[in-house]
Write a structure and sequence with these properties.
The chain is of the alpha+beta class. 25% of the residues lie in helices and 37% in strands. The protein has two domains: 41 residues; 112 residues, Lipocalin, CATH 2.40.128. It is rod-shaped.
Length: 167
């Protein structure tokens, strides 16, 4: 009988430890879920309007592409590679010379075949043209000409002047 009582005491003791460990494990899991839920932030959706683009933007850097001799990664101020936008029109300059001008619109679309939504810039209503996407990050205009991972180029422009008048 003594052995049975001792055996039962050991079993009860083990069950109490098991219950304590299960309670601790459950509490740890609940805390972990709460921390993970609170620490996950939804990416802030950015919007770009034609008003945000309005002004003069000068090229400062580029990345990617397969061009013979490569593209200089950085461009100094005054290089003459400028994009000018009003809320409806654009002008593109290279080395200070006007290369093209016309109208543009912005369209929110999936960035190529991804689930990432970005703003596509459509020049002169030509929706069949090669796709370019734009975003403004930390006050810099980024233009994605193709996917960088597939020989596309990312251009980064710095705003040099706000335009409140026509081009």
């Amino acid at each position: 009988m003594f052995r049975f009582i001792e055996f039962m005491r050991i079993v009860i003791n083990q069950l109490e430890l098991y219950n304590m460990n299960m309670k601790k494990l459950l509490m740890l899991m609940l805390i972990s879920v709460a921390v993970l839920t609170l620490s996950c932030k939804k990416e802030k959706e950015t919007t770009i309007t034609a008003k945000d683009l309005s002004g003069s933007w000068e090229l400062r850097s580029s990345f990617g592409g397969m061009i013979a001799g490569g593209i200089p990664p950085n461009y100094s101020p005054g290089n003459g590679s400028i994009l000018k936008f009003t809320e409806t029109d654009y002008q593109e300059f290279s080395k200070g010379q006007l290369m093209k001008s016309g109208t543009y619109t912005l369209s929110k679309e999936n960035f190529y075949s991804s689930d990432v939504l970005m703003y596509r810039i459509i020049y002169d209503g030509n929706v069949e043209a090669f796709k370019e996407y734009v975003e403004i990050v930390d006050g810099k205009l980024k233009v994605y000409d193709g996917m960088v991972s597939a020989d596309g180029i990312e251009y980064v422009y710095q705003k040099i002047q706000d335009l409140n008048q026509n081009l």
